[in-house]
Amino acid sequence: MITEEFSDKIPPFSVSAPAEQRVPYVFNSPHSGRVYPPSFLRSSKLDTSQIRGSEDFHVDDLFQDVVRIGAPLVKANFPRAFVDANREPYELDEKLFGEKLPSYSNKKSVRVACGLGTIARVVAESQEIYHEKPTIDEALERVENLYRPYHEYLRKLLARTHVQFGYSVLIDCHSMPSSAVGGSNASKPDIIIGDRFGTSCSFYISSAITEIFKDLGLKVARNKPYAGGFITEHYGRPDLGLHAVQIEINRGLYMDEKRLILTPGFEQLRTQIAMFAERIVAIPDASFYPEKQAAE
Questions:
Q1: Where are the domains of the chain?
Q2: In whole angstroms, how far apart are CA 26 and each of 80, 102, 156, 162?
């Protein structure tokens, strides 16, 4: 089995956590996985650097200091080019498989149309991944053995956090190419905050996140062009006290995107993220719910 390298040697996901969770925040890095099974690489027409083009390069390391403030950090070990945790479990692409898809597949999503379903057909710059396409059985194996254990753990962690603190805030951590979509020379903001246009997270939480990053000297935008993916949409239920917000970080701040190496900007950005985390968890609960504050 192509996924046995994870089950036997490396778990599907890793968790860095304090001895006791002290804050209602959970940080999550679903796209920084960098364990590429050799059999998967052999099936690809891309070289190692090309296939890593869609990886959120070392985003888990950028956020590692959140553990010191009492928050857990979850990261997928499997790469998104192998199976994408920020998709529905069965967003499957008819163009990728030479056989009939299961009836429960979502074949019509926008992400599938772009070749970026649960089992991606392309990586960055729309480069085709495979010269030996996976079978449906192989795709379902990846979902069952990697995707599902990861989401089962994340769901239970958020539920425990909600019970313990009365609400939970999922911070979904990502990175984005430094150049604008379409190859223009226009640069993107340093940070993009995505809350599904206010549907996945309290306005007060996402606004606080935005203002903290601005105070730290970073250029911030909201929801455009990244409003949040499946994880933000799926786990964000602000009316139930379950908040989810996505943070996209401009890769130009901390890495050389062509050579896939960290630059001196990494340490500065890591420090800024640690400062952000310290400040966001220090905001009193009532600040997110002014109607509650007024009633008191």
A1: 4-295
A2: 20, 34, 11, 10
H helices within the chain, ranges in order?
4-8, 38-42, 48-51, 59-62, 110-113, 136-142, 148-165, 203-215, 230-235, 265-281, 290-295
CATH superfamily assigned to domain 4-295 = Zn-dependent exopeptidases (3.40.630.40)
Beta strands at 242-250 and 127-128: parallel, antiparallel or unpaired = unpaired
Catalogue the E-assigned strands of 60-211: 73-76, 122-123, 127-128, 168-176, 191-194
Helix, strand, coil content of the chain in percent (nearest 5):
40, 15, 45
* Series of mean pLDDT values for 10-residue runs along the chain (296 residues): 65 97 98 94 93 96 98 98 98 92 94 95 91 94 97 98 96 91 65 97 94 98 96 96 97 96 98 98 70 40
Two structure tokens written together for 79:
């790469």
User: Pairing between strand 73-76 and 13-16?
Assistant: antiparallel
- By CB atoms closer than 10 A (0-12, 13-18, 19+), residue 151 is buried
Say if pTM beats, i.e. exceeds, 0.85.
yes
For the chain, give me the number of helices (H) and strands (E)?
A: 11, 11
Q: The tokens 């409003």 sit on which residue?
A: 227
Q: Distance between CA atoms of 80 and 52, rounded to whole angstroms?
A: 9
Give whole-number Cα distances, 73 to 19, 60, 78, in Å: 13, 8, 16
